[in-house]
């Protein structure tokens, strides 16, 4: 039976997962906090979610809305989805097997292990890990929990938009990073065009840019400093028609802009985020997206914080 991907289903999913997730806070500010014109700026701090990213929403949506067999669950991940599935499985008493590529950061690998999942590292990119995970699912009968191309995943990620709407109801625009498209697909589903949704991608991993140009999901490069979270090779089939209908713009940012956004977030707010987590903010800071001065109310999702880029001995965030 197919699962509807719409606002009522997102609301129902939120009711299901609400007791298992954090309502992550927002910080109200201004473009002037980052040396930009003084437009209204709201940061959604989803890096404070359990397991360190928005992915926890989709993980619980899968484990609570689908039947989990005795063999447990299996997932492939650049790191954050794996940590989220491992965390949800630990909380619910389910066995989890997670496959990650060699590009995954040490922080994410350590977090997955800390939740007691069976971890396997192999292949250079997410697509390699996905192939291995699917073979294990086929052999064992474990439930596949896809990082982005699964209806329950999209519904879970869409709960972020529901939550943000109650916290900052007057936003004109939301900037969100894009990898496989689960988060932006969920946000765009909830918005339905009522709020401008802007996707932000690294120049080295333009998955949605390539898909929109081709008219369908196609392979894209998988490079850059955010490759462990924003480089799955192609966007999901489920999210693509949603993005084509309700994502108003997609912009690209360089690795240097992402690094600068990490530093700016630390300097201005003392918040440490991973490269993929600040990619949306990078679009504002480098000018890839330019809000209307004073009048536009912009929201930015800081989507993940699983990084080791902190030197507490020195009290600083080193340049990656």
Q: What is the element layout, followed by pairings?
A:
Layout: H1 7-17, E1 26-30, E2 40-45, H2 55-65, E3 73-76, H3 80-92, E4 96-100, H4 106-114, E5 118-121, H5 126-140, E6 143-144, H6 151-167, E7 173-177, H7 182-191, E8 196-202, H8 207-214, H9 227-230, H10 239-246, E9 249-253, H11 255-269, H12 275-286, E10 297-302
Helix pairs in contact: 1-2, 1-6, 2-3, 2-6, 3-4, 6-7, 7-10, 11-12
Provide a descriptive summary of the structure in words.
By secondary structure, the chain is of the alpha/beta class. The protein has two domains: 7-54 and 150-302, Rossmann fold; 55-144, Rossmann fold (3-Layer(aba) Sandwich). It has helices at 7-17, 55-65, 80-92, 106-114, 126-140, 151-167, 182-191, 207-214, 227-230, 239-246, 255-269, 275-286; strands at residues 26-30, 40-45, 73-76, 96-100, 118-121, 143-144, 173-177, 196-202, 249-253, 297-302. The strands form two sheets. It has a six-stranded mixed beta sheet, sandwiched between helices. It is globular and about 55 Å long. The protein starts with 6 loop residues before the first helix and ends in an 18-residue tail after the last strand. The mean pLDDT is 94.
Q: For the residues shown, what is the average pLDDT?
A: 94
Strand order of the largest sheet: 1-2-10-7-8-9
| Radius of gyration computed on alpha carbons | 18 Å
Uncertain regions spanning at least 5 consecutive residues: none
The CATH architecture of the largest domain would be 3-Layer(aba) Sandwich
**How is the biggest beta sheet arranged?**
6 strands, mixed
């Amino acid at each position: 039976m197919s699962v509807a991907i719409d606002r009522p289903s997102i609301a129902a999913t939120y009711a299901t997962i609400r007791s298992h997730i954090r309502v992550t806070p927002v910080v109200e500010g201004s473009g002037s906090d980052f040396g930009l014109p003084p437009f209204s700026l709201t940061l959604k701090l989803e890096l404070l979610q359990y397991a360190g990213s928005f992915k926890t929403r989709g993980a619980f949506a899968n484990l609570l809305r689908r039947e989990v067999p005795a063999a447990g669950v299996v997932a492939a991940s650049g790191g954050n989805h794996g940590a989220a599935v491992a965390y949800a499985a630990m909380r619910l008493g389910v066995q989890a097997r997670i496959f990650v590529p060699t590009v995954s950061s040490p922080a994410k690998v350590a977090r997955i292990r800390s939740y007691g999942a069976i971890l396997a590292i192999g292949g250079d990119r997410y697509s390699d890990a996905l192939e291995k995970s699917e073979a294990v699912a086929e052999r064992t009968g474990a439930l596949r929990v896809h990082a982005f191309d699964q209806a329950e995943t999209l519904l879970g990620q869409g709960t972020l938009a529901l939550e943000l709407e109650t916290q900052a109801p007057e936003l004109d625009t939301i900037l969100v990073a894009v990898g496989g498209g689960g988060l932006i697909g969920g946000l765009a589903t909830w918005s339905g065009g009522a709020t401008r949704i802007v996707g932000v991608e690294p120049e080295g991993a333009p998955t949605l840019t390539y898909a929109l140009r081709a008219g369908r999901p196609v392979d894209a490069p998988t490079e850059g400093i955010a490759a462990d979270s924003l480089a799955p090779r192609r966007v999901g089939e489920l999210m693509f028609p949603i993005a084509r209908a309700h994502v108003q713009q997609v912009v690209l940012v360089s690795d240097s802009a992402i690094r600068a956004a990490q530093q700016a977030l630390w300097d201005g707010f003392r918040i440490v985020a991973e490269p993929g987590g600040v990619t949306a903010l990078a679009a504002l800071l480098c000018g890839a997206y330019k809000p209307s001065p004073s009048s536009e109310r912009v929201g930015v999702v800081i989507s993940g914080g699983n990084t080791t880029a902190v030197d507490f001995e020195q009290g600083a965030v080193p340049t990656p």
